[in-house]
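Risk mitigation, structural track. In case the binding assays with s-citryldethia Coenzyme A fail to produce interpretable data, a predicted complex structure has been prepared as a fallback.
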Amino acid sequence: MDSKAKATLSFSDGRPSVEFPIYGGSVGPDVIDVRSLYAKTGAFTYDPGFMSTASCKSSITYIDGDQGVLQHRGYSIETLIENCDFLEVAYLILRGKLPNAAEKKEFDHTVTIHTMVHEQLARFYSGFRRDAHPMAVLCGVVGGMAAFYHDSLDINDPTHRMISEFRLIAKMPTVVAMTYKYNIGQPFMYPRNDLGYVENFMRMMFGVPCEEYRPNPVLVRALEKILILHMDHEQNASTSTVRLAGSSGANPFACIAAGIASLWGPAHGGANEAVLKMLDEIGDVSNIDRFIAKAKDPHEVQKLMGFGHRVYKNYDPRARLIQGACHDVLAELGLEDNKMFKLAMALEKVALEDEYFVKRKLFPNVDFYSGIVYKALGIPVSMFTALFALARTVGWIAQWNEMIGDADQKIGRPRQLFLGETAAKFVPLAQRR
Ligand code: SDX
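Fallback model:
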């Protein structure tokens, strides 16, 4: 990278000024390269939550938070949603270009023939309680996959990375569906090689061995659009977790399990489940004002779930697209007067007219409407974040691969501002009060 300018840091305490190179990307904010700061000044930067920190270079996903823009490899999310299927966008995110017909056929085929899991993996589930949270099960099962694939754990071998990539993308729908089947006490459904990626997933979720199951194609396409919208999103918390885990050389299954664990949090991917619980709690439009007042109260921990975003200070483009998919699903199912959807839209209207939310630029995010669609599709609330993980596995792998291929990459090891004791006097146990 060529420096486009220099930043000078001067000190009021007599320390000599120092200069740092500034780099510009193809779009978006410049970066000030502070890697030499500690060596030159003996000081660290301080940025808890990484509000002003670029942790890496990337060419995968670009977000303009002020404009509400989301692009993957230069294509707008709106273009991709309208023209591509799940594996086509996955190919783009993973390989950096849209596949031609032959490439897509081969990619789809390779994913399809890897959808089955080792029969022993099915036994992992029986160790969990039936009512275990699906994300707890997924953390265990996906991490445990490393125990089955010793033939592809060398992260420095591109062939191993490719094999692991196919195994994870192909098997996530299978293990997610198995998590659901285990929870409801129904038999696991094996994947079928004559079905598409999302159709296969829906059959493994809702089909039973006793009869044929063919999902409604309108619902399949709506779910596919929603999963595409969750595929990658720059350096969010779970992606940063995957990169940090991967920076130590951990195997891909362990890194993806770490990403699943981070995504589970209600401030992140767990928000879609929290939105449904919040809408259930509000119950009726007559309770909206009271709930909004609580969400604005700094003394209350309750936030308006599905609202706000670290990057988007405008409408999350994914929220708008999911709202559209929500409308399609409800219309297809004859649920246009779905109370939850109407309540969500009324809640959004009130919040977007409220000074508190306007001043803080808090808009609906990807999680605000997704749960309503999932619920209408028959997916239980506890499975919502698991579906987010299914889709985000593509982005996690692409970002993990990009990190391994980055010559600048080193093991992630942040420092700290230490505020603790420095000369504590040791008192033997017998003399301690
Ligand atoms: C995802 O990073 C990504 O890209 C994530 C994601 C992805 O695809 O990977 O987009 C997926 O995680 C979406 C976000 C899902 N989370 C939620 O919907 C939970 C509710 N949202 C908040 O927890 C919050 O908005 C965050 C966590 C999403 C963002 O938090 P920030 O950027 O740290 O912002 P903040 O907490 O500093 O908030 C700034 C102000 C604060 O008030 P003041 O201290 O200025 O008075 O806005 C307030 C916050 O209290 N605020 C909210 C709020 N979100 C922020 N107040 C009420 N309700 C909210 N939802």
